[in-house]
């Protein structure tokens, strides 16, 4: 099967590697320029198993369990273990949380537990009735390091890396590159992350509800004592330690439809993060004078996150994108499912679903 993957972010890399594990030797087209500003390069790499949605929790926990169980993967990804706290609002359905905790216990035994407000001393001013899921076996990785290692492994196993941006993909599976070459393929997978909606529109494919949103965080000086990685669903604040005396903090943005190659830092949002850091974590001098704010974009799917989607019924052109701001957590599992589906020919998801 002649398979082309367009895009060498984490999605393209993990799919290429999984395909070589199954005996295929895909051709991966990458854009060196795009790689330095893609979602994978900027990603904070936060990992945890818990999600309120059971399917998302299973996907994240399976990937985390695979990573934790493999010294090779841990080394490639620069994995660091940290506990992770997810603060949930007072109106959270506790029986649904308990069901997800039972699921996590199968995949990451003993890792996660529910804690009540009096035990959440790192956080100030949480609303009464807030609870948190605390996981011991969580942490973060370097998505960029993992991508580089997976591409290297894929090439060793026979995949071909072509540093040529793709300028056109035709519905019957022909790939045309900026260097003027063409390649006829049985399957073409667009793993082009936040570039995907614009490329689909330019090449005449339906957009399938895929959208692009900016994500932004700041690396600053100062750290709340004893706090690992966290997401506070009551304020939107999230973060993790980022080296000695430094902490990464962010809030969600509302910048939809941005061009991933031409992003502007949202300075008003960066100021709100500093205000939230003081109010929620008591960090009154974070981020400090040598702070760095990072802005990048990710591709958001209407549902289902990172997975294979057929662009047109019967067409050999598919997308493997839709990380929705969180695919570093479950890319390993998503890549395995996508590779198996490509081999079996069972692509169950159409664009837009
Ligand atoms: C700032 C930020 C922080 C994040 N933090 C977390 C986190 O803490 N935890 C978590 O789980 N997830 C996080 N994510 C999400 C996760 O990192 C992304 O979902 C994932 O990296 C997306 O990978 P991708 O390969 O789909 O996209 P990308 O990494 O953007 O890769 C797409 C690639 O396609 C290439 N490309 C585009 N067009 C062409 C073309 N025509 N020809 C050839 N190549 C092309 C680009 O150059 C690029 O390299 C974060 C994302 C961002 C942006």
Topology readout:
Layout: E1 3-6, H1 10-21, E2 27-29, H2 32-35, H3 39-42, E3 46-47, H4 54-69, H5 71-77, E4 80-88, H6 94-107, E5 112-116, E6 131-140, H7 143-156, E7 160-162, E8 166-169, E9 174-177, E10 182-184, E11 187-190, H8 196-202, E12 211-221, E13 229-232, E14 238-241, E15 246-250, H9 267-281, E16 292-300, E17 307-310, E18 317-321, H10 331-344
Parallel strand pairs: 1-2, 1-11, 2-7, 4-13, 11-18
Antiparallel strand pairs: 3-6, 4-6, 5-6, 8-9, 9-10, 12-15, 12-16, 13-14, 14-15, 17-18
Helix pairs in contact: 1-7, 1-10, 4-6, 4-10
Residues 6-12, 29-31, 34-35, 38-40, 42-46, 143, 165-166, 191-195, 215, 294, 296-298, 321, 323, 325-329 line the site of flavin-adenine dinucleotide.
In short:
This protein is of the alpha/beta class and 353 residues long. The protein has helices spanning 10-21, 32-35, 39-42, 54-69, 71-77, 94-107, 143-156, 196-202, 267-281, 331-344, and strands at residues 3-6, 27-29, 46-47, 80-88, 112-116, 131-140, 160-162, 166-169, 174-177, 182-184, 187-190, 211-221, 229-232, 238-241, 246-250, 292-300, 307-310, 317-321. The mean pLDDT is 95.
Features:
alpha/beta, 2 domains, globular, D-Amino Acid Oxidase, Chain A, domain 2, binds flavin-adenine dinucleotide, 6-stranded mixed sheet, 353 residues, FAD/NAD(P)-binding domain, 9-stranded mixed sheet, single chain
Describe the protein in words.
There is one protein chain. This protein is α/β, with parallel strands linked by helices. It folds into two domains: 3-42 and 143-209 and 302-344, 3-Layer(bba) Sandwich (FAD/NAD(P)-binding domain), CATH 3.50.50.60; 81-139 and 211-300, D-Amino Acid Oxidase, Chain A, domain 2 (2-Layer Sandwich). The protein is 30% helix and 26% strand. The chain has ten helices and 18 strands. The protein has helices spanning 10-21, 32-35, 39-42, 54-69, 71-77, 94-107, 143-156, 196-202, 267-281, 331-344; strands spanning 3-6, 27-29, 46-47, 80-88, 112-116, 131-140, 160-162, 166-169, 174-177, 182-184, 187-190, 211-221, 229-232, 238-241, 246-250, 292-300, 307-310, 317-321. A hairpin with a 4-residue loop joins β14 (238-241) and β15. α1 (10-21) runs parallel beside α7, α1 packs across α10 and α4 (54-69) packs across α10 (331-344). 47% of the residues are buried. The model has no long low-confidence stretch (mean pLDDT 95). Flavin-adenine dinucleotide is lined by residues 6-12, 29-31, 34-35, 38-40, 42-46, 143, 165-166, 191-195, 215, 294, 296-298, 321, 323, 325-329.
